[in-house]
Design a protein that fits this description.
The complex is a heterodimer of chains A (235) and B (329). Chain A contains ten helices and ten strands. By secondary structure, chain A is of the alpha/beta class. The radius of gyration of chain A is 17 Å and the shape is globular. The chains are: A alpha/beta (235), B mainly alpha (329). Chains A and B meet through helix 2 and helix 3 of A and helix 9 and helix 10 of B.
Chain lengths: 235, 329
Protein backbone atom coordinates (compact mmCIF):
# COMPACT_ATOMS: atom_id res chain seq x y z
CA UNK A 1 0.00 0.00 0.00
CA UNK A 2 2.75 2.43 1.00
CA UNK A 3 6.20 2.23 -0.61
CA UNK A 4 9.04 4.53 0.37
CA UNK A 5 12.19 4.25 -1.73
CA UNK A 6 15.52 5.96 -1.05
CA UNK A 7 13.90 8.88 0.73
CA UNK A 8 16.11 11.81 1.79
CA UNK A 9 15.10 14.93 3.64
CA UNK A 10 16.96 18.07 4.74
CA UNK A 11 16.49 21.00 7.09
CA UNK A 12 18.49 23.64 5.25
CA UNK A 13 21.93 22.09 4.70
CA UNK A 14 21.48 19.43 7.40
CA UNK A 15 20.41 16.01 6.18
CA UNK A 16 17.97 14.41 8.61
CA UNK A 17 16.69 11.42 6.67
CA UNK A 18 19.11 9.19 4.76
CA UNK A 19 18.00 6.79 2.02
CA UNK A 20 15.00 5.37 3.84
CA UNK A 21 13.19 2.35 2.43
CA UNK A 22 9.94 1.38 4.09
CA UNK A 23 6.82 -0.48 3.07
CA UNK A 24 3.42 -1.00 4.61
CA UNK A 25 0.97 -3.56 3.22
CA UNK A 26 -2.78 -3.14 3.36
CA UNK A 27 -4.21 -4.21 6.71
CA UNK A 28 -0.88 -4.23 8.52
CA UNK A 29 0.13 -2.57 11.76
CA UNK A 30 3.75 -1.50 11.39
CA UNK A 31 5.84 0.12 14.10
CA UNK A 32 8.63 2.59 13.47
CA UNK A 33 10.81 2.85 16.54
CA UNK A 34 13.69 5.14 17.37
CA UNK A 35 15.12 7.47 20.00
CA UNK A 36 14.92 11.24 20.28
CA UNK A 37 16.04 13.02 17.13
CA UNK A 38 16.20 9.84 15.07
CA UNK A 39 14.08 11.52 12.39
CA UNK A 40 10.80 9.74 13.03
CA UNK A 41 8.63 12.85 12.96
CA UNK A 42 10.51 14.30 10.00
CA UNK A 43 9.86 11.09 8.11
CA UNK A 44 6.13 11.34 8.83
CA UNK A 45 6.05 15.01 7.87
CA UNK A 46 7.83 14.20 4.62
CA UNK A 47 5.28 11.46 4.03
CA UNK A 48 2.44 13.97 4.41
CA UNK A 49 4.33 16.54 2.34
CA UNK A 50 4.44 18.96 5.26
CA UNK A 51 8.17 18.90 4.71
CA UNK A 52 9.66 18.52 1.23
CA UNK A 53 11.57 15.39 0.26
CA UNK A 54 14.97 16.15 -1.25
CA UNK A 55 15.36 12.80 -3.00
CA UNK A 56 13.63 9.46 -3.31
CA UNK A 57 10.03 8.57 -3.85
CA UNK A 58 6.85 7.83 -1.92
CA UNK A 59 4.07 5.90 -3.55
CA UNK A 60 0.62 5.13 -2.20
CA UNK A 61 -1.42 2.43 -3.93
CA UNK A 62 1.14 2.46 -6.72
CA UNK A 63 0.72 6.20 -7.37
CA UNK A 64 3.70 8.50 -6.86
CA UNK A 65 2.63 11.08 -4.25
CA UNK A 66 6.06 12.51 -3.44
CA UNK A 67 5.33 15.96 -4.82
CA UNK A 68 1.62 16.14 -4.00
CA UNK A 69 0.47 18.94 -1.70
CA UNK A 70 -0.62 17.86 1.80
CA UNK A 71 -4.34 18.35 1.27
CA UNK A 72 -4.31 16.04 -1.74
CA UNK A 73 -2.50 13.33 0.21
CA UNK A 74 -5.08 13.57 3.00
CA UNK A 75 -7.86 13.37 0.43
CA UNK A 76 -6.27 10.18 -0.91
CA UNK A 77 -6.64 8.61 2.54
CA UNK A 78 -3.33 9.16 4.34
CA UNK A 79 -4.29 10.78 7.65
CA UNK A 80 -1.90 11.81 10.34
CA UNK A 81 -2.31 12.05 14.11
CA UNK A 82 0.36 14.61 14.85
CA UNK A 83 2.92 14.50 17.63
CA UNK A 84 1.72 16.40 20.68
CA UNK A 85 -1.92 16.09 19.56
CA UNK A 86 -2.20 19.57 17.97
CA UNK A 87 -5.91 19.86 18.65
CA UNK A 88 -7.51 23.22 17.89
CA UNK A 89 -7.78 24.44 21.47
CA UNK A 90 -10.43 27.18 21.22
CA UNK A 91 -12.73 25.08 19.02
CA UNK A 92 -15.22 22.67 20.51
CA UNK A 93 -14.52 18.94 20.55
CA UNK A 94 -17.17 18.36 17.89
CA UNK A 95 -15.81 21.15 15.67
CA UNK A 96 -12.39 19.51 15.90
CA UNK A 97 -13.86 16.22 14.77
CA UNK A 98 -15.76 17.91 11.96
CA UNK A 99 -12.53 19.53 10.81
CA UNK A 100 -11.10 16.05 10.46
CA UNK A 101 -13.88 15.39 7.95
CA UNK A 102 -12.97 18.50 5.95
CA UNK A 103 -12.36 16.43 2.83
CA UNK A 104 -15.50 14.31 3.28
CA UNK A 105 -18.03 17.09 2.67
CA UNK A 106 -19.65 15.22 -0.21
CA UNK A 107 -20.89 12.50 2.12
CA UNK A 108 -22.59 14.04 5.19
CA UNK A 109 -24.36 10.83 6.16
CA UNK A 110 -21.02 9.02 6.35
CA UNK A 111 -19.66 11.84 8.53
CA UNK A 112 -22.63 11.57 10.91
CA UNK A 113 -22.22 7.83 11.12
CA UNK A 114 -18.47 8.04 11.66
CA UNK A 115 -18.98 10.75 14.31
CA UNK A 116 -21.20 8.27 16.14
CA UNK A 117 -18.54 5.58 15.80
CA UNK A 118 -15.84 7.85 17.26
CA UNK A 119 -18.13 8.81 20.16
CA UNK A 120 -18.77 5.11 20.72
CA UNK A 121 -15.03 4.45 20.69
CA UNK A 122 -14.34 7.35 23.09
CA UNK A 123 -17.50 8.05 25.14
CA UNK A 124 -15.75 10.84 27.05
CA UNK A 125 -15.56 12.87 23.80
CA UNK A 126 -19.32 12.63 23.44
CA UNK A 127 -19.76 13.83 27.01
CA UNK A 128 -17.53 16.83 26.32
CA UNK A 129 -18.45 17.49 22.70
CA UNK A 130 -19.45 21.13 23.35
CA UNK A 131 -16.37 22.01 25.40
CA UNK A 132 -13.31 23.73 23.94
CA UNK A 133 -10.74 21.08 23.04
CA UNK A 134 -8.13 22.97 25.07
CA UNK A 135 -9.93 22.08 28.31
CA UNK A 136 -9.46 18.33 27.77
CA UNK A 137 -6.75 16.36 29.57
CA UNK A 138 -3.75 15.11 27.62
CA UNK A 139 -5.20 11.64 27.22
CA UNK A 140 -8.55 12.96 26.07
CA UNK A 141 -6.80 15.25 23.59
CA UNK A 142 -4.97 12.23 22.21
CA UNK A 143 -8.32 10.46 21.81
CA UNK A 144 -9.64 13.56 20.06
CA UNK A 145 -6.64 13.68 17.74
CA UNK A 146 -7.17 10.03 16.81
CA UNK A 147 -10.91 10.53 16.38
CA UNK A 148 -10.26 13.57 14.21
CA UNK A 149 -7.96 11.56 11.96
CA UNK A 150 -10.57 8.78 11.72
CA UNK A 151 -13.06 11.29 10.32
CA UNK A 152 -10.66 11.87 7.46
CA UNK A 153 -11.61 8.36 6.27
CA UNK A 154 -8.06 7.05 6.55
CA UNK A 155 -6.89 4.07 4.56
CA UNK A 156 -3.49 4.55 6.09
CA UNK A 157 -3.33 6.07 9.57
CA UNK A 158 -0.04 7.66 10.64
CA UNK A 159 0.30 7.88 14.40
CA UNK A 160 3.09 10.07 15.74
CA UNK A 161 3.97 9.15 19.33
CA UNK A 162 0.46 8.63 20.66
CA UNK A 163 1.89 7.65 24.07
CA UNK A 164 3.77 10.92 24.51
CA UNK A 165 3.23 12.48 27.94
CA UNK A 166 0.47 10.10 28.97
CA UNK A 167 0.08 8.10 32.19
CA UNK A 168 0.79 4.35 31.75
CA UNK A 169 -2.88 3.46 32.21
CA UNK A 170 -3.88 5.82 29.40
CA UNK A 171 -1.11 4.53 27.16
CA UNK A 172 -2.61 1.08 27.56
CA UNK A 173 -6.05 2.40 26.68
CA UNK A 174 -4.80 4.22 23.58
CA UNK A 175 -2.86 1.19 22.39
CA UNK A 176 -5.91 -0.99 22.86
CA UNK A 177 -7.83 1.35 20.58
CA UNK A 178 -5.04 1.26 18.01
CA UNK A 179 -5.20 -2.55 17.90
CA UNK A 180 -8.98 -2.39 17.67
CA UNK A 181 -8.83 0.04 14.74
CA UNK A 182 -6.34 -2.18 12.95
CA UNK A 183 -8.61 -5.15 13.49
CA UNK A 184 -11.43 -3.15 11.89
CA UNK A 185 -9.33 -2.80 8.78
CA UNK A 186 -7.37 0.44 9.10
CA UNK A 187 -3.76 0.11 8.00
CA UNK A 188 -1.52 1.74 10.60
CA UNK A 189 2.00 3.09 10.71
CA UNK A 190 2.79 3.65 14.38
CA UNK A 191 5.76 5.83 15.24
CA UNK A 192 6.91 5.44 18.85
CA UNK A 193 9.68 6.00 21.33
CA UNK A 194 7.99 3.49 23.59
CA UNK A 195 9.51 0.59 21.68
CA UNK A 196 8.27 -2.18 23.91
CA UNK A 197 4.61 -1.15 23.76
CA UNK A 198 4.74 -0.48 20.02
CA UNK A 199 6.48 -3.71 19.06
CA UNK A 200 4.15 -5.68 21.32
CA UNK A 201 1.15 -4.80 19.15
CA UNK A 202 2.81 -4.48 15.72
CA UNK A 203 3.32 -7.20 13.16
CA UNK A 204 6.53 -5.76 11.77
CA UNK A 205 8.94 -3.15 13.02
CA UNK A 206 11.53 -0.76 11.67
CA UNK A 207 14.31 0.75 13.76
CA UNK A 208 15.47 4.25 12.86
CA UNK A 209 18.77 5.64 14.19
CA UNK A 210 20.04 9.16 13.38
CA UNK A 211 18.07 9.23 10.16
CA UNK A 212 19.09 5.78 8.92
CA UNK A 213 17.03 2.60 8.90
CA UNK A 214 19.14 0.09 10.82
CA UNK A 215 16.77 -2.85 11.20
CA UNK A 216 13.61 -4.15 9.63
CA UNK A 217 12.07 -7.37 10.88
CA UNK A 218 8.93 -8.97 12.29
CA UNK A 219 8.13 -7.42 15.66
CA UNK A 220 8.67 -10.61 17.66
CA UNK A 221 12.15 -10.94 16.15
CA UNK A 222 13.00 -7.36 17.10
CA UNK A 223 11.76 -7.88 20.64
CA UNK A 224 14.14 -10.84 20.94
CA UNK A 225 17.08 -9.11 19.24
CA UNK A 226 19.95 -8.45 21.68
CA UNK A 227 20.94 -5.04 20.21
CA UNK A 228 17.38 -3.83 20.22
CA UNK A 229 16.82 -5.09 23.74
CA UNK A 230 19.86 -3.32 25.07
CA UNK A 231 19.23 -0.06 23.24
CA UNK A 232 15.45 0.32 23.42
CA UNK A 233 13.96 -2.09 25.90
CA UNK A 234 16.46 -1.56 28.70
CA UNK A 235 17.22 -5.06 29.87
CA UNK B 1 -31.15 29.50 18.94
CA UNK B 2 -27.85 30.33 17.30
CA UNK B 3 -29.41 33.37 15.68
CA UNK B 4 -31.21 34.73 18.76
CA UNK B 5 -28.77 37.64 19.04
CA UNK B 6 -29.23 38.37 15.38
CA UNK B 7 -33.01 38.63 15.62
CA UNK B 8 -32.85 40.88 18.69
CA UNK B 9 -30.41 43.13 16.84
CA UNK B 10 -32.57 43.14 13.69
CA UNK B 11 -35.66 44.05 15.72
CA UNK B 12 -33.94 46.98 17.40
CA UNK B 13 -32.60 48.23 14.07
CA UNK B 14 -36.15 48.12 12.68
CA UNK B 15 -37.65 49.82 15.75
CA UNK B 16 -35.25 52.77 15.95
CA UNK B 17 -36.75 54.90 13.14
CA UNK B 18 -40.25 54.19 14.48
CA UNK B 19 -39.36 55.32 17.98
CA UNK B 20 -37.25 58.29 16.85
CA UNK B 21 -38.55 59.50 13.48
CA UNK B 22 -36.43 62.19 11.82
CA UNK B 23 -33.78 61.92 14.50
CA UNK B 24 -30.36 62.98 13.16
CA UNK B 25 -28.58 60.20 15.04
CA UNK B 26 -30.86 57.55 13.58
CA UNK B 27 -31.28 58.51 9.95
CA UNK B 28 -27.96 60.23 9.23
CA UNK B 29 -25.45 58.75 11.68
CA UNK B 30 -27.28 55.43 11.49
CA UNK B 31 -26.61 55.18 7.76
CA UNK B 32 -22.90 55.85 8.26
CA UNK B 33 -22.80 53.33 11.10
CA UNK B 34 -24.56 50.73 8.96
CA UNK B 35 -22.00 51.08 6.17
CA UNK B 36 -19.20 50.82 8.71
CA UNK B 37 -20.78 47.67 10.11
CA UNK B 38 -20.71 46.02 6.67
CA UNK B 39 -17.05 46.99 6.25
CA UNK B 40 -16.03 45.89 9.75
CA UNK B 41 -17.93 42.59 9.62
CA UNK B 42 -16.25 41.78 6.31
CA UNK B 43 -12.83 42.76 7.59
CA UNK B 44 -13.40 40.73 10.77
CA UNK B 45 -13.77 37.58 8.68
CA UNK B 46 -10.20 38.16 7.57
CA UNK B 47 -8.68 39.46 10.82
CA UNK B 48 -10.71 37.51 13.34
CA UNK B 49 -11.14 34.18 11.66
CA UNK B 50 -8.26 33.85 9.22
CA UNK B 51 -5.77 35.75 11.41
CA UNK B 52 -4.64 37.99 8.55
CA UNK B 53 -4.59 41.78 8.62
CA UNK B 54 -5.56 43.99 5.71
CA UNK B 55 -4.38 47.58 5.97
CA UNK B 56 -5.81 48.46 2.58
CA UNK B 57 -9.48 47.73 2.98
CA UNK B 58 -10.44 51.30 2.13
CA UNK B 59 -9.09 50.55 -1.36
CA UNK B 60 -11.72 47.83 -1.91
CA UNK B 61 -14.33 50.16 -0.43
CA UNK B 62 -13.19 52.80 -2.92
CA UNK B 63 -13.16 50.41 -5.86
CA UNK B 64 -16.79 49.52 -5.24
CA UNK B 65 -17.71 53.18 -4.84
CA UNK B 66 -15.86 54.39 -7.95
CA UNK B 67 -17.08 51.49 -10.08
CA UNK B 68 -20.67 52.46 -9.26
CA UNK B 69 -20.00 56.19 -9.63
CA UNK B 70 -18.16 55.98 -12.96
CA UNK B 71 -20.47 53.43 -14.59
CA UNK B 72 -23.66 55.27 -13.60
CA UNK B 73 -22.53 58.84 -14.36
CA UNK B 74 -20.39 58.36 -17.47
CA UNK B 75 -22.06 55.35 -19.06
CA UNK B 76 -25.60 55.70 -17.67
CA UNK B 77 -25.62 52.12 -16.43
CA UNK B 78 -28.38 51.10 -14.04
CA UNK B 79 -27.19 51.16 -10.42
CA UNK B 80 -27.59 47.47 -9.65
CA UNK B 81 -25.68 46.39 -12.76
CA UNK B 82 -22.86 48.81 -11.94
CA UNK B 83 -22.78 47.41 -8.41
CA UNK B 84 -22.49 43.85 -9.71
CA UNK B 85 -19.67 44.78 -12.08
CA UNK B 86 -17.94 46.62 -9.23
CA UNK B 87 -18.14 43.49 -7.08
CA UNK B 88 -16.80 41.35 -9.92
CA UNK B 89 -13.85 43.64 -10.61
CA UNK B 90 -12.98 44.06 -6.93
CA UNK B 91 -13.22 40.34 -6.31
CA UNK B 92 -10.95 39.56 -9.25
CA UNK B 93 -8.35 42.11 -8.16
CA UNK B 94 -8.43 40.81 -4.58
CA UNK B 95 -7.97 37.28 -5.87
CA UNK B 96 -5.00 38.27 -8.04
CA UNK B 97 -3.48 40.21 -5.15
CA UNK B 98 -3.86 37.21 -2.84
CA UNK B 99 -2.10 34.75 -5.15
CA UNK B 100 1.52 35.66 -4.43
CA UNK B 101 1.01 36.92 -0.87
CA UNK B 102 -1.12 34.34 0.90
CA UNK B 103 1.29 31.53 0.12
CA UNK B 104 3.56 33.03 2.75
CA UNK B 105 2.87 32.58 6.43
CA UNK B 106 2.77 35.55 8.76
CA UNK B 107 1.79 39.13 8.31
CA UNK B 108 2.95 39.71 4.75
CA UNK B 109 -0.60 40.47 3.77
CA UNK B 110 -0.62 43.52 6.05
CA UNK B 111 2.41 44.96 4.23
CA UNK B 112 1.11 44.16 0.77
CA UNK B 113 -2.36 45.55 1.38
CA UNK B 114 -0.85 48.68 2.91
CA UNK B 115 1.02 49.26 -0.35
CA UNK B 116 -2.03 48.36 -2.40
CA UNK B 117 -4.17 50.85 -0.47
CA UNK B 118 -1.69 53.64 -1.14
CA UNK B 119 -1.49 52.77 -4.85
CA UNK B 120 -5.28 52.78 -5.26
CA UNK B 121 -5.52 56.11 -3.46
CA UNK B 122 -2.85 57.62 -5.75
CA UNK B 123 -4.72 56.34 -8.80
CA UNK B 124 -7.98 57.84 -7.54
CA UNK B 125 -6.25 61.21 -7.14
CA UNK B 126 -4.19 61.13 -10.34
CA UNK B 127 -6.50 59.55 -12.93
CA UNK B 128 -8.51 62.74 -13.14
CA UNK B 129 -10.02 61.85 -16.48
CA UNK B 130 -11.88 58.92 -14.95
CA UNK B 131 -12.18 59.71 -11.27
CA UNK B 132 -12.34 63.50 -11.28
CA UNK B 133 -9.15 63.53 -9.21
CA UNK B 134 -9.11 65.31 -5.84
CA UNK B 135 -12.33 67.14 -6.77
CA UNK B 136 -14.18 63.86 -6.77
CA UNK B 137 -17.18 62.68 -8.72
CA UNK B 138 -20.61 64.18 -8.21
CA UNK B 139 -24.17 63.83 -9.43
CA UNK B 140 -24.26 60.11 -8.85
CA UNK B 141 -27.88 59.13 -9.50
CA UNK B 142 -30.07 57.68 -6.76
CA UNK B 143 -30.20 53.92 -6.55
CA UNK B 144 -33.24 52.39 -8.16
CA UNK B 145 -34.34 48.99 -6.91
CA UNK B 146 -36.77 47.61 -9.50
CA UNK B 147 -38.41 50.99 -9.93
CA UNK B 148 -38.32 51.93 -6.23
CA UNK B 149 -36.09 55.01 -6.04
CA UNK B 150 -34.00 55.31 -2.88
CA UNK B 151 -33.79 59.07 -2.53
CA UNK B 152 -34.45 60.16 1.05
CA UNK B 153 -32.89 59.43 4.41
CA UNK B 154 -35.70 57.18 5.59
CA UNK B 155 -35.47 54.95 2.55
CA UNK B 156 -31.69 54.90 2.76
CA UNK B 157 -31.93 53.86 6.38
CA UNK B 158 -34.07 50.90 5.30
CA UNK B 159 -31.76 49.87 2.47
CA UNK B 160 -28.56 50.17 4.49
CA UNK B 161 -30.15 48.41 7.47
CA UNK B 162 -31.21 45.53 5.22
CA UNK B 163 -27.76 45.36 3.62
CA UNK B 164 -26.11 45.43 7.05
CA UNK B 165 -28.34 42.67 8.43
CA UNK B 166 -27.66 40.62 5.31
CA UNK B 167 -23.91 40.91 5.78
CA UNK B 168 -24.12 40.04 9.49
CA UNK B 169 -26.28 37.04 8.68
CA UNK B 170 -23.87 35.92 5.95
CA UNK B 171 -20.94 36.31 8.28
CA UNK B 172 -22.59 34.36 11.11
CA UNK B 173 -23.37 31.51 8.74
CA UNK B 174 -19.98 31.53 7.09
CA UNK B 175 -18.19 31.29 10.42
CA UNK B 176 -20.26 28.27 11.40
CA UNK B 177 -19.77 26.47 8.10
CA UNK B 178 -17.15 24.05 6.88
CA UNK B 179 -15.09 26.93 5.48
CA UNK B 180 -15.42 28.83 8.75
CA UNK B 181 -14.13 25.88 10.74
CA UNK B 182 -11.27 25.49 8.29
CA UNK B 183 -10.36 29.16 8.74
CA UNK B 184 -10.40 28.93 12.51
CA UNK B 185 -8.16 25.87 12.21
CA UNK B 186 -5.76 27.77 9.96
CA UNK B 187 -5.67 30.57 12.48
CA UNK B 188 -4.92 28.09 15.28
CA UNK B 189 -2.16 26.25 13.46
CA UNK B 190 -1.61 26.27 9.74
CA UNK B 191 0.50 23.15 10.10
CA UNK B 192 -2.17 21.12 11.90
CA UNK B 193 -4.79 22.46 9.49
CA UNK B 194 -2.78 21.09 6.56
CA UNK B 195 -2.79 17.72 8.30
CA UNK B 196 -6.61 17.82 8.21
CA UNK B 197 -6.43 18.13 4.47
CA UNK B 198 -7.17 21.85 4.47
CA UNK B 199 -5.52 23.82 1.70
CA UNK B 200 -4.59 26.79 3.89
CA UNK B 201 -3.62 29.05 1.00
CA UNK B 202 -6.91 28.47 -0.73
CA UNK B 203 -8.95 29.00 2.44
CA UNK B 204 -7.18 32.29 3.13
CA UNK B 205 -7.57 33.43 -0.48
CA UNK B 206 -11.29 32.70 -0.43
CA UNK B 207 -11.90 34.67 2.73
CA UNK B 208 -9.75 37.57 1.51
CA UNK B 209 -11.90 37.81 -1.61
CA UNK B 210 -15.13 37.58 0.43
CA UNK B 211 -13.84 40.28 2.74
CA UNK B 212 -13.03 42.55 -0.23
CA UNK B 213 -16.51 41.91 -1.66
CA UNK B 214 -18.14 43.09 1.58
CA UNK B 215 -16.10 46.31 1.28
CA UNK B 216 -16.97 46.84 -2.39
CA UNK B 217 -20.66 46.28 -1.62
CA UNK B 218 -20.52 48.95 1.10
CA UNK B 219 -18.62 51.24 -1.29
CA UNK B 220 -21.24 50.98 -3.98
CA UNK B 221 -24.04 51.80 -1.51
CA UNK B 222 -21.94 54.65 -0.13
CA UNK B 223 -21.50 56.22 -3.58
CA UNK B 224 -25.23 56.23 -4.30
CA UNK B 225 -26.17 57.40 -0.84
CA UNK B 226 -23.69 60.30 -0.79
CA UNK B 227 -24.21 61.18 -4.48
CA UNK B 228 -20.68 62.56 -4.34
CA UNK B 229 -17.38 60.79 -3.62
CA UNK B 230 -13.77 61.92 -3.42
CA UNK B 231 -10.50 60.07 -2.71
CA UNK B 232 -10.53 61.37 0.89
CA UNK B 233 -13.10 58.76 1.85
CA UNK B 234 -10.77 55.94 0.79
CA UNK B 235 -7.43 56.96 2.27
CA UNK B 236 -5.03 54.99 4.44
CA UNK B 237 -6.56 56.58 7.54
CA UNK B 238 -9.89 54.95 6.72
CA UNK B 239 -8.22 51.56 6.38
CA UNK B 240 -6.63 51.99 9.79
CA UNK B 241 -9.94 53.09 11.24
CA UNK B 242 -11.63 49.95 9.92
CA UNK B 243 -9.02 47.77 11.62
CA UNK B 244 -9.59 49.81 14.79
CA UNK B 245 -13.33 49.09 14.63
CA UNK B 246 -12.71 45.34 14.47
CA UNK B 247 -10.20 45.38 17.31
CA UNK B 248 -12.26 47.78 19.42
CA UNK B 249 -15.40 45.67 19.22
CA UNK B 250 -13.64 42.37 19.76
CA UNK B 251 -11.74 40.19 17.33
CA UNK B 252 -13.32 36.98 16.02
CA UNK B 253 -16.86 38.00 16.88
CA UNK B 254 -19.27 39.18 14.20
CA UNK B 255 -21.30 41.22 16.67
CA UNK B 256 -18.05 42.47 18.16
CA UNK B 257 -17.07 43.96 14.81
CA UNK B 258 -20.56 45.42 14.35
CA UNK B 259 -20.45 46.87 17.85
CA UNK B 260 -17.00 48.40 17.25
CA UNK B 261 -18.19 49.99 14.00
CA UNK B 262 -21.25 51.53 15.65
CA UNK B 263 -19.30 52.68 18.72
CA UNK B 264 -16.59 54.38 16.67
CA UNK B 265 -19.12 56.09 14.38
CA UNK B 266 -21.09 57.42 17.35
CA UNK B 267 -17.88 58.48 19.06
CA UNK B 268 -16.86 60.59 16.05
CA UNK B 269 -20.27 62.26 15.99
CA UNK B 270 -20.47 62.97 19.68
CA UNK B 271 -16.91 64.29 19.95
CA UNK B 272 -17.48 66.90 17.25
CA UNK B 273 -18.51 69.37 19.98
CA UNK B 274 -14.99 69.26 21.43
CA UNK B 275 -13.60 70.60 18.13
CA UNK B 276 -9.79 70.71 18.39
CA UNK B 277 -9.70 68.24 21.26
CA UNK B 278 -11.65 65.60 19.35
CA UNK B 279 -8.63 63.55 18.29
CA UNK B 280 -7.10 63.75 21.75
CA UNK B 281 -10.21 62.40 23.50
CA UNK B 282 -10.73 59.85 20.73
CA UNK B 283 -7.22 58.46 21.22
CA UNK B 284 -7.49 58.43 25.02
CA UNK B 285 -10.77 56.50 24.89
CA UNK B 286 -9.34 53.91 22.51
CA UNK B 287 -6.34 53.44 24.78
CA UNK B 288 -8.58 53.07 27.82
CA UNK B 289 -10.67 50.40 26.12
CA UNK B 290 -7.61 48.44 25.06
CA UNK B 291 -6.15 48.60 28.59
CA UNK B 292 -9.30 47.71 30.52
CA UNK B 293 -11.10 45.54 27.94
CA UNK B 294 -8.32 43.95 25.89
CA UNK B 295 -10.71 41.46 24.27
CA UNK B 296 -12.68 44.38 22.90
CA UNK B 297 -15.81 46.29 23.85
CA UNK B 298 -18.43 43.71 22.92
CA UNK B 299 -16.56 40.50 23.73
CA UNK B 300 -15.13 41.90 26.97
CA UNK B 301 -18.44 43.22 28.26
CA UNK B 302 -20.53 40.17 27.36
CA UNK B 303 -17.94 37.86 28.90
CA UNK B 304 -17.81 39.99 32.04
CA UNK B 305 -21.59 39.92 32.42
CA UNK B 306 -21.69 36.19 31.83
CA UNK B 307 -18.94 35.55 34.38
CA UNK B 308 -20.65 37.68 37.02
CA UNK B 309 -23.93 35.90 36.33
CA UNK B 310 -22.35 32.47 36.67
CA UNK B 311 -20.52 33.39 39.88
CA UNK B 312 -23.76 34.78 41.34
CA UNK B 313 -25.54 31.50 40.59
CA UNK B 314 -22.62 29.59 42.05
CA UNK B 315 -22.60 31.66 45.26
CA UNK B 316 -26.34 31.25 45.61
CA UNK B 317 -25.89 27.49 45.35
CA UNK B 318 -23.09 27.68 47.94
CA UNK B 319 -25.38 29.47 50.34
CA UNK B 320 -28.04 26.87 49.78
CA UNK B 321 -25.46 24.16 50.39
CA UNK B 322 -24.37 25.79 53.65
CA UNK B 323 -27.94 26.08 54.85
CA UNK B 324 -28.52 22.43 54.08
CA UNK B 325 -25.43 21.40 55.99
CA UNK B 326 -26.46 23.41 59.07
CA UNK B 327 -29.86 21.75 58.96
CA UNK B 328 -28.18 18.40 58.94
CA UNK B 329 -26.11 19.32 61.96
Amino acid sequence: MLEINGLNSHYGPVQVIHDINLGVHAGELVALVGGNGAGKTTLLHTLSSLHPASAGSISFDGVDITRWPSHRIVAAGVCQVPEGRQVFAPLSVEDNLRLGAYRQYSDPSWVRQELGRVYHLFPILHERRRQPAGTLSGGQQQMLAIGRALLGRPRLLLLDEPSMGLAPLLVEEIFRVIVELNRQGVTILLVEQNARAALAIAERGYILETGRMVKAAPATELLADDDVRRAYLGY
Amino acid sequence: MRLTGFFIFAASVALLPVLFPDNYFVTVVGIAAGLHVILAVGLNLLIGYAGQISLGHAAFFGMGAYASAILTTRFDWPGLLAMLVGLLVTGTIAWLLAQPILRLRGHYLAMATLGFGVIVHVILVQATHWTGGPDGLGEIPALSLLGWIVDDDQRWYGVIAAAMLLSIWLSLNLVDSRIGRALRAVRGSEFAAEMMGIDATRAKTQIFVVSALFAAFAGSLFAHQQAFISPDSFSLMISVELVTMVVLGGIASTFGAACGAIALTLLHESLVVFEDYELLIHGALLMAVMIFLPQGLFVGLTQGVRRRWISRIASRQDMKGERNSTVQQ
